[in-house]
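Record type: monomer structure entry
Structure origin: computed from sequence
Chain ID: A
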Amino acid sequence: MPRWCRLGPLTLALTLSLPVGGSAQAMVHFRAGATLATLGGSDAPSVDSRIGLDLGGDVTFDLTESLALQAGLSYVQKGANLPQGDIDLGIQIDYLDIPVLLRYVVPTGGAISPHILLGPAVSFKLGCSLQVSGEGAAGTLSCGEAGVPPVQSLDFGAMGGAGVDIATSESFRVTLDVLYNLGVRSIDDSPSSEDVRNRSWSFLAGVAVPIN
């Protein structure tokens, strides 16, 4: 079982200024979809992707006609599968993700509006386990016990992606998004000085309605 590394403590500070005027629109989005997660970094073992869930939503505040601020909250399943011969090992790490993204809408003048998303994301670990199966055996171990590397309770990522809004009426939109979350720190909480980071794609569909 590969060991990972532990980085020093990090401090998060987010200061947001929202120049939203009286005519600006705010939208609430509800989304659901799938994740394709893996592990990267200079010391990451050879792994296969884990397929998981991404469930949540966000609120978007217009800053200008084509630029908005999007703040979200999502339950996201990350991790990876680590095949070891006849035994399958699956690192399953579940997070509460809080992305704060700039959203640029490409003007089209029609019902379909493409957009681009970019910004930071903070992830709070909700659970972590190692799933073992194969050779007539199966079991679950918590991260940090029986040789399973412990995982940091807090992760930071850089998120980017694109999508489209499809306006079906003045007060209802269908949304489709593809997002990539690049972990920027090691997720390990052991003293082994190895570098292993989260990598995940999210493929999302949802709806959006105005709240003002």
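Annotation 1: The CA atoms of residues 105 and 115 lie 4 Å apart.
Annotation 2: The mean pLDDT is 85.
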